[in-house]
Every structure is written in C-alpha cells, then in structure tokens.
Amino acid sequence: MTPFPFPNPAAHSPRTVLILGARGRLGLAAARAFAQAGWQVLAQVRPASHGAAGTGGTALPAIPGVWWMPVAVHETAALAAQAQGAQVVVHALNPPYTDQAWRTQAPALMEAAIAVTRQLGATLMLPGNVYNFGEAMPAVLREDTPQAATGTKGRLRVQLEQRLHAATQDGSLRAVVLRAGDFFGSGAGGLLDQIIAKRLPQGRVTLPGPAHVATPWAYLPDLARTFVRVAEQRQHLSAFDTLHFAGHQATGQQWVQALAAVAATQGWLPPAGALRVSTTPWPLLQLVGLLVPMLQAVTSMRYLWCTPHRLDNTRLTALIGDEPHTPFDTAVRQALADLGWARAAPAQVAAA
68 forms bridges with which residues in the sheet? Predict the structure, then answer.
C-alpha cells in the first residue's frame, strides 16, 4: 500500500483524482482505471477500512499510482486539505440498499461530496442509474427523457441529481452524471452473484425477468475507463451535464448462453447438457421482504428487469469516441473469475 498523506502526489501531478468510497466495487475499478491511464489517484476509505494495525479493517491492495486515504468522508475539511490539487472527484459512495438507509444516508453523502469538491474547486463525477425514469420509462432513455421516478430510490435519485445541479450554479464546482445500467464485474455485491449465477456451479441460472427482455448492463471495468475518458474531456462539458453509458444490451437468454459457456468449461452442466433456468420468485421474496428490508428494497425494483429499455449514448460517444467495450462473453467470464468462481477469460483488449 502506498503511504499517504506525505508526500501529497497531487502537488506534483497535473492529473489527480480523488475517489470517495474507493473500497467499493465501482470505486476500486475507477481507482485502477485512472491509475492505468496515468492519473495520480487519491483513494478515500473509511478509517476502519485501512489495513493498519488496530483498525480492524481489511488490507488495502497495493496499486501503483494509488494513495489510500483513511479519512471519514464527512470530515470534509481534513479530506480536502489532504487532497489539495485534485481536479476531479468521483462520488463512488453508496449506503446499504435498504430504503431507510438511502433516505437517511444518501443525502448526507451527497452533501459531503459537494463540500469536498467545492473546497477543491474540482469537477464532481456521479455514477447515475435508470431509477430516475420510473416504471413507465420509455424504451430508449436519453439525457433529456422526462423523469417520472417511482418508489423511494427513484425519487431520491432525482432529488440527489437536482441538488448536485443546484450546487453548480454559483460556479464553485462543476459536475457530470454518468448514467449506466446494472453493474456486473469487479467483485461481489450485484445481481449476477446474488441472483442470476448464484447456483451456477449446480447447473442452475435464475433470471430476474422474462428471458426475451433486453436491459442495459454496465461491465464495471468498461464503465471505469469511461469515467477516465470523460474526466479527460470535462472541459468540453457544461457546468452541470449528464451522459449515458450504453454498456451491454442483454436479454436473459443471452445471459444463459454466456453462463452456459462458462459452465461447460467448468464441468458444471447437468447430465442433460443444458443449464436449468428458472425465474426469480418475486411474490415469495416480496412476502419475505416484510421481515427483511433488503429484500423489500430489491423486490420494489423488479420492474427494471421486466421493462425493455436501453440507454442512448450518442452524446457520450460524441465526446469520447467509442465506449470502452469488452465483448459480453469475455466480460461475463471475467466477472465470474473476479468472484473466484471460474477461470479468468483470455486477455483481450477493450475496444478503443
């Protein structure tokens, strides 16, 4: 692990990014992507996440170009003082997935991110999602698509983005929302490992929606590289801007095909030679959710996998060129390898 705070790498680098919540899946993927692109990375983590003696946290990975900063995100003055010189801040902080946690924690995390970015005079980058558009969302989602959020998380996402927009009006910071679909890859904690492929070693796949419905999926290493490219072109954006990342447009059947290829190489296929496919028992989960807030929150979002939709990335590609794009089968195999469930995919270079 690279020590911090002395010396401050931002003082000697023309390109420095502060990542808030760098121990999470997106945060860690972004830290790696920015570092690989030659940026100096200041990676904020909770003090308890620091692997030093007596903290009780897990060891942090040693990544060239990444300086770990065990500072509480709400200590904005101390955090900004240690991150002086950073031109970009990535808001990769997330509360637990329950509605209660989102209501009580998400606004405070946004305020902390705004405060730090304002003190640095930097650009704040926020990963967005499609919750803003609600259950009646159209098939194609553009940056100017009317937002008709439904449910606690959807309405909160709209409010958070409105708050960020308002914070840019006095010229003290700039901001961009990079909206994407469901995350997969770069570790555990998503729909892939918790539902879809949870029983893949037993030859089973569980789909969250109808097999023919196509929805957007963001392979995190690709999305992280996109954050880098947008950061490098931020001078061409408005003070507050929104961009859409298309990612992979995949149906349940495409997931089954990609997972079957991995299962075949791992020896996980049933004797019949095909994966057993089932759908998520949403009514049962909804019932259990009366006692388990996490399940209640997940079931409230089931419309996301039953409603065909895609993100139009025309404005994004006009800014950065083609999206970084790992072929779907390769991305799925690597995502399972990241979970420790399968052998890694052969090395391939994402599209430039």
Answer: 43
Task: Provide the strand spans (E) within the chain.
Answer: 16-20, 40-45, 66-70, 88-91, 123-128, 140-141, 174-179, 182-184, 204-207, 214-219, 240-244, 248-251, 276-279, 310-311
pLDDT (0 to 100) of residue 58: 67
* Between 341 and 5, the higher pLDDT residue: 341
pLDDT, average across residues 142-148: 97
Give 220-237 pLDDT, tens digit per residue: 999 999 999 999 999 999
Instruction: Answer yes or no: are the C-beta atoms of 15 and 41 closer than 8 Å.
Output: no
Question: Strand 40-45 to strand 16-20: parallel, antiparallel, or no bridges (unpaired)?
Answer: parallel
Cα separations (Å) of 76 from 111, 118, 177, 264?
10, 10, 21, 50
CA distance 277 to 299: 20
Tokens 């994407």 sit at which residue?
A: 180
* Residue 136 binned pLDDT confidence (cut-offs 50, 70, 90): very high
Q: Which CATH architecture group holds 9-187+218-247+309-326?
A: 3-Layer(aba) Sandwich (3.40)
- Domain locations along the chain: 9-187+218-247+309-326
Collapsing DSSP to helix, strand or coil, 294 comes out as: helix
